[in-house]
Design goal:
By secondary structure, the chain is of the alpha/beta class. The chain has two domains: 10-245, Type I PLP-dependent aspartate aminotransferase-like (Major domain) (Aspartate Aminotransferase, domain 2); 248-365, Aspartate Aminotransferase, domain 1 (Alpha-Beta Complex), CATH 3.90.1150.10. 40% of the residues lie in helices and 15% in strands. It has 13 helices and 13 strands. Strands 1-9-8-5-4-2-3 form a seven-stranded mixed β-sheet, sandwiched between helices. It is globular, with a radius of gyration of 21 Å. The two termini are 22 Å apart.
Length: 369
């Protein structure tokens, strides 16, 4: 029986960097400082530099990153924040944490990123921010969204959880809005071995406010100026992430190679492969196809011991927690995507033989053989 093919092989990634990772963890253990220490400070500088902005603030996870940005912007009860409906709930939850209302809008049917026209139609006098999610590793239309937000006087916040290293129009994601928010969940292109996140921004005032909020609202120990939170990035994760960050561009390039191989093998079939908008670099956090036979394909892959995932089977405006509020009756592109998308195995160490087997099973199930 063939070996199973996972969606993601973190063990293979660990084997690639094992000596460096082991040394990084030992260095933290030997130093004896585990929170808000030199590893975290160095990672903040390095990620900010990578994104070509001035400030980085390590936090506990990507959801906290968005929440702290919204809180630092003063967003709260009575305000509205525009959010794409086709994304993980970690994008919209922070809006609710502030007391504001997420306003869900539809996505571009090709890239799955927020539709700027739909976003503009949703702006009201209560709108204070727009969250652009760079889904699956490709930037949303940041030039248009930046111009829209500037024209309307609202904040552009980038959810870069799936897109570190992606760019558009010659600029990396996280450098277009008032802030970029990263998740370092283990499955991400830059993943920790636990939870982690970061905010990057060019705004020194915003950065300082987020630093205070992440650490119990404190600027000096035992002096608390506002009610804050306990959501700091620990030293162990920071040290691990620094090792991986040095190799990120190479690993993203390998992901692109795997995506091109999938494109080649699936060309001419009935499945829709991920289109690139051609304005920048897609870093393929996921390789996500579309098919009316999605469920049959997933079942066939599972029977062949091949991993696949549906991101996301229920758009946010259809989730129980939001549907009860009387959110939009229909956002057709988000709903159709939820019915048709399927993400295939994608990781830098994926082999050509593994991809060949994935595609063979997939194409049979799609009735292309």
């Amino acid at each position: 029986m063939p070996e199973p093919i996972p969606m993601l092989d973190l063990k293979a990634e660990y084997a690639l960097f094992e000596p460096q990772l082991t040394q990084s963890v030992l260095s933290v253990l030997q130093a004896g400082q585990f929170v808000l220490g030199p590893q975290g400070l160095a990672l903040e500088r390095e990620v900010a530099h990578y994104c070509n902005v001035e400030h980085g603030i390590g936090v506990a996870n990507g959801t906290d990153a968005i929440h702290l940005v919204l809180r630092a912007l003063g967003i709260g009860a009575g305000d509205e924040v525009i959010v794409p409906a086709f994304t993980f709930i970690g994008t919209s939850e922070p809006v609710d944490y502030t007391g504001a209302t997420p306003v869900f809008v539809d996505v571009d049917p090709h890239t799955f990123n927020i539709d700027p026209d739909a976003a503009e139609r949703a702006i009201t006098p209560r709108t204070k921010a727009l969250i652009a999610v760079h889904l699956f590793g490709q930037c949303a239309d940041l030039p248009r969204l930046q111009a829209l937000c500037a024209r309307k006087g609202i904040a552009l916040v980038e959810d870069c959880a799936q897109s570190i290293g992606a760019d558009i129009a010659g600029r990396r994601c996280a450098s277009w809005g008032v802030a970029g928010c990263f998740s370092f969940y283990p499955s991400k292109n830059l993943g920790a071995y636990g939870d982690g996140g970061m905010v990057v921004t060019a705004d020194a005032r915003l950065a300082e406010e987020i630093r205070v909020l992440r650490n119990h609202g404190s600027r000096a120990r035992y002096h608390h100026h506002v009610i804050g939170y306990n959501c700091r990035l620990d030293e162990m994760q920071a040290a691990i992430l620094r090792v991986k960050l040095a190799h990120l561009d190479r690993l993203n390039a390998l992901r692109r190679e795997k995506a091109l191989e999938y494109d080649r093998r699936l060309a001419g079939s009935s499945v829709v492969t991920p289109p690139e908008h051609g304005q920048g670099t897609h870093v393929y956090h996921q390789y996500t196809i579309r098919s009316a036979r999605r469920d049959a394909i997933k079942a066939a892959l599972e029977a062949a011991r091949i991993g696949s995932m549906i991101y996301y089977p229920i758009p946010l405006h259809r989730q129980d927690v939001y549907a009860a509020r009387g959110t939009p009756a229909s956002l057709p592109h988000s709903e159709r995507a939820a019915e048709e998308v399927l993400s295939l195995p994608m990781f830098p160490m994926l082999t050509e033989a593994q991809q060949a087997r994935v595609c063979e099973v997939l194409l049979r199930a799609a009735e292309d053989y």
